[in-house]
Amino acid sequence: MTGSRVLLELVVVLGTAAVVTVVFQALRLPVVLGYVLAGLLIGPHVPVPLVASPDLVHVLSELGVMLLLFTVGTELRLSAIARVGLPAAMTALFEVGLVIVVGTLVARVLGFGPIEALFAGATLGISSTMLVAKAFEELNWKGGFTEIVFGILVFEDLIAIMLLAVLTGVATGSGLDAPELLRMTGKLGGFLALLLIGGLIIVPRAVRFIAKRARTETVLIVALFVCFGASALADYAGYSVALGAFIAGVLIAESGHGHEVFALVKPFRDVFAMVFFVSIGMTIQPAALWSEMTTILLFTAVVLLVKPVGVTIGVFFGGHGVRPAVRAGISLAQIGEFSFVIASLGAGSGAARPSLLAIAVGVACLTTIISGFAIARSEKISGSVARWLPGRVGMFESFYESWLDKLRSRPVTPWRRLRKSVVVLIVDTGVLIAIIIAASTLAPEKAAEYGLQGLPATIAVIAAASLVCAPFAVSLVRRVNSIARTLAAEVIPTRESSPSLPAGTNTVSLDLGRAPRRSLMVAFEVGIGLLVAVPLVAATQPFVPGGPLVILIVVVGLVLLAQRALRDFDGHVRAGSELILELMKQPTPELDQLPSMLPGFEGLVTIKIGPESPAVGRSLAQLDLRAKTGATVLAVSRTGGSSGIATPSPTEPLAAGDLLAMAGSEEAIAGARRLLSSHGGEA
Question: What are the Cα distances from residue 564, in Å, to 359, 556, 559?
């Protein structure tokens, strides 16, 4: 191709992209979709006289992938990853695993093969950091639940990188064979260890040295050298260039100059990333989009339904409340740049059908448009979900948030006591995955050697695998229970007998904190159980199609367990509310004594309704107090303490002078104060 021809091709690509994206910006639509449309217009599958060379655009798009992943890495120092926190990591692992499980299952139902179904599920699992950040920027949203969302996105990016590495091995012919998978995993671990350890020794020091003594353009040149060099090493080792570029970005970030390099590389990244999205559009055949419309709609439903549910569950168990959890889930209900990379890998390598990329584009278009509208209305949607919650669940939510606040604020973490159980839990999970994969791929051949075929061979393999798995499964369940019990006891310590109660109250020898501790322990068991079960099924589903049934059985069992615990906790709270009301009737209420009388009621506060408060004459249901703030009213003391109501009805109207006893996290209580004490209310 001559130089003038290359120049003409660039004019076509850049000019078309510029015109289309100006229109998209005017319509307030994501420019990424504009780039894809520009590629469709200049591609060979649309009768528009602006056909660009697919080969040239493909080469330039590789640079776009590398620079895109490189800039993601430059913003992720290892210390920052640790600071984002374990809850964000667990939420990302759970929800990505859940989407992969459901997406793979739907793909298999639609007739996809095992490997291409795995690619399809992975394509649906990763949200778009670029699109989410742009949506928050346009709405001017900062802090609050947005920090939760960005924390999850950090770990989603890390999971995407690992998926790319594993799927690259699968795409190159390793398939779903246990020995090959073991060899591929070992090779990947060795490559990552070599690149990270060697890079950490050399790259950060070199970048700091050069940044102090050289010009800005020299820093840029060195950064690009590291980026393309690591990408070349990854490609030579048989992995995606995106993996090498991402690690290069992390190494640059460790030098302390990550933000500076990001600012220098960003203009190049934006241009070449645009070319990457244009190249995706050029591969799309409009007829393929139409022929795959059923698949696109079903995959869109998976992203819009399963992903928000997974994120909401994870964020809730992380102790952030229903409203922030729902808003975080809605914000992540789309796919984007990583999904295109995964789909391109599958379609380009032949491991998945060629139409997978067109399907990914169709799903991205629909989810981006729908989630954009949903994000803008997420506050209203989350309020509706909070109001829909059953009373027992809403009450437990208020206490659960305050308990998690207490656990996070402890000066000494329980990690030392949990370390052994957590390590054994991870090992048990890994061993179970290995046994299931080996039983699926190796055991049938061994059974055939002994003359077993058909149904007898299947029964023998299942029996042998179950026998081998049993001790590890029992150990796993015990470790989940041990971790949950230890964490619950950290928040609500075990007591051999109740402490002193108010005068005239009999002292009995019983554990008064049993009901709330049991409820908290069950909540931890549910969260940890789902966190273990979903990734385990996601890892083994290509080998054992019945994996989703395991999740269903686990969920049903955990729900039944939770129902009983919630019922006991509800009775405990009602009894505690009576005691709270009695304390509030005293001339000088001393609610600080309550935690020693009824463990689990820490952080209880009182709020007085002033004569100018907007709550006067309105019921708790009309105020929508619990849904808006997450706080729960346990008791109302009236007329100087001579009367009152324990566990008031939602329809009970409030009056000036009422003293409300409330439970909830610090954030929930602060929200309740603002709602009840505005315009002259007292607190």
Answer: 44, 13, 9
Q: What is the pLDDT of residue 83?
A: 62
DSSP letters, 543-591, are T-TTHHHHHHHHHHHHHHHHHHHHHHHHHHHHHHHHHHHHHHTSSS--G
Radius of gyration of the chain (CA): 28
Distance CA 498, CA 238 (A): 64
Average pLDDT over residues 610-631: 86
C-alpha distances in Å from residue 598, one per residue of 14, 515, 570, 584, 668: 69, 10, 14, 15, 21
| Residue pair 339/360 in contact by the 8 Å Cβ criterion | yes
Residue 681: the pLDDT is 38
**Whole-number Cα distances in Å, 12 to 30, 65, 66, 373:** 21, 21, 23, 33
Q: Is the dihedral of CA 601, 603, 608, 614 positive or negative?
A: negative
Instruction: Return the C-alpha torsion angle 405, 406, 411, 412, nearest 10.
Output: -110
Contacts of 633 (CB under 8 A, 6+ apart): 620, 625, 648, 660, 661, 662
* pLDDT above 50 for 506: no
Q: Are 106 and 84 in contact (CB under 8 A)?
A: no
Give me the pLDDT at residue 588, please: 67
- pLDDT score, position 230: 93
Distance CA 567, CA 570 (A): 5
- Count CA atoms closer than 13 A to 168's CA, side-chain side: 21
* Residue 328 near residue 145 (C-beta atoms within 8 A): yes
The span from the CA of 45 to the CA of 323, in Å, is: 45
User: Mean pLDDT over all residues of the chain?
Assistant: 83
What is the model's pLDDT at position 55?
78
Full set of structural domains in the chain with CATH: 1-52 (no CATH), 61-386 (1.20.1530.20), 396-498+509-567 (no CATH), 604-677 (3.30.70.1450)
Residue type, 18: A
Residue 48 · residue 239 · CB < 8 Å: no
Cα separation, 315 vs 382, whole angstroms:
13
Whether pTM > 0.70 for this model: the answer is yes
Distance separating alpha carbons of residues 261 and 339, to the nearest angstrom: 25
Helix (H) or strand (E) holding 194: helix 178-213
Residue 188 has pLDDT above 50, yes or no: yes
- What is the predicted pLDDT for the residue at 503? 47
At 662, give phi and psi (nearest 5°).
Answer: -125, 145
The one-letter amino acid at 221: I
Instruction: Using alpha carbons only, give the angle 588, 592, 598 rounded to the nearest 5 degrees.
Output: 120
| Percent of the chain residues past pLDDT 70, beyond the cut | 89
223-237, 244-258, 310-324, 549-563: range with lowest mean pLDDT: 549-563
CA distance 188 to 190: 5
